[in-house]
Amino acid sequence: MSFLSQTLARVKPSPTIAVTTRAAELKAEGRDIISLGAGEPDFDTPQNIKDAAIRAINEGKTKYTAVDGIPALKQAICAKFARENDLTYTPAQVTVGTGGKQVLYNALMATLNAGDEVIIPAPYWVSYPDMVLLAGGTPVIITGTLENQFKITPEQLEAAITPNTKWFMFNSPSNPTGAGYSWDELKALTDVLLRHPQVWVLSDDMYEHLAFDDFKFCSPAQVEPALYDRTLTVNGVSKAYAMTGWRIGYAAGPVALIKAMAKVQSQSTSNPSSISQYAAVEALNGPQDYLESNKALFQGRRDLVVAALNTCPGITCPVPEGAFYVYPDIAGCIGKTSAGGAVIANDEAFVTALLNETGVAVVFGAAFGLSPNFRISYATSEAELTEACARIKTFCEGLN
Fold first, then answer.
1. For a surface tag, which of 202, 373, 394, 395 has the fewest beta carbons within 10 Å of its beta carbon?
2. Of 383, 209, 378, 215, whose CA–CA distance to 295 is shortest?
């Protein structure tokens, strides 16, 4: 009998963390590595937020808090939803966790039973299917296409729903593609969900503030108020406020679900860091002007990367509507051999050879549920992005 849980055999480690770890190891060995694997802004947490954390420490706010968030933070989250999303919640409808990942996990653990299905559009964030599996559910994958900017259609959603469907997990703008659903596109999906009252919506809005050009962010419960009572709207401070290491995510939804999620959290981590919570209050209530300047910076990086990748033989890179990722298609590279002698049988072989031969670390598309592709996070300097894209182009030109 194996000592380890059979549940653990259902899941795999995070490929994005694995790529970042491998890149760090090679860098420590003295290799010239450009790591484009991590989804993490490269600039520092704003000073006003850091100052709020320091004040909290100096004022002794370092004790246990309420399991799922201090009142001040819950109130700030309610104000944020009203201000930015036209969604009205009370503090009793809000939960705070140790990052958005824990919030998602709590929701699935609190609701899934054996046989319950969760519909997940692909390409998806690597953790979605594995969290469903850990919670005892069954992921049901529906795949967007390059021709449709990696977005799914209402017809695909309708066909995937069964009597066992419990959740539809939705992420826009998307990790890994940056694809964003317009109001009309999202309304077409919510129209399908209205016909299936057993299906709840788990909306991951983490990249809300990174919406480019004319794309306007919108959230399912905002687009279709009739879904308000069966939607959990998830967000956090990690991406918009450059607070990845502070580990604060949050969500709002029906009181009964929020209470159930708090029960899960009470027996796992208990409360998030008290200091991080006070910093998050400042993030949500304080000045917001830098969000626009940060967005403009990311949009410039997006344009640089998309233009450069589309000059690479064998690569097609669509223009994403948001987030800080691109998800180029490499169908034209598959089956070829690299200058270093590696056979490019699939996208994992492509990124492995790319790292070994050029020192550029990216994540292969199969990890996100759609091949042949790879993901670049352009949350780094323009100088590094320019050099990385030049290396990728040289690598592609060397394929034969």
1. 394
2. 209
Q: What pTM was estimated for this model as a whole?
A: 0.95
Average pLDDT over residues 268-277: 98
Domains in the chain: ranges and CATH: 7-44+290-397 (3.90.1150.10), 64-285 (3.40.640.10)
Q: What is the mean pLDDT of residues 39-65?
A: 96
Adjacency order of strands within the sheet including 165-171: 94-97, 249-252, 231-236, 200-204, 165-171, 117-122, 138-143
The amino acid present at 257, given as its one-letter code, is L
Distance CA 216, CA 211 (A): 7
Instruction: Say if residue 342 is exposed, middle or buried (CB neighbours under 10 Å; 0-12, 13-18, 19+).
Output: middle
Nearest partner of 252 among 269, 231, 223, judged by Cα:
231
Q: Distance between CA 393 and CA 303 in Å, rounded?
A: 16
What residue has token string 């930015």? 84
Whose structure tokens read 């299905």? Answer: 117
At residue 27 the predicted structure's pLDDT band, cuts being 50, 70 and 90, is confident
pLDDT tier at 13, thresholds 50, 70, 90:
confident
Going by C-alpha positions, the residue among 210, 257, 238, 205 that lies closest to residue 98 is 238
Which single residue is written with the structure tokens 């780094």? 380
Model confidence at 395: pLDDT above 90: yes
Lookup result for tokens 């890179």: 317
> Residue 1 above 80 pLDDT?
no
Residue 266: other Cβ atoms inside 10 A: 12
C-alpha 28/C-alpha 271 separation (Å) is 35
The set of residues, in sequence order, having a beta carbon less than 8 Å from that of 351 and lying 6+ positions away, is 19, 361, 362, 363, 364, 374
Residues 102-157: tens digit of each pLDDT: 999 999 999 999 999 999 999 999 999 999 999 999 999 999 999 999 999 999 99
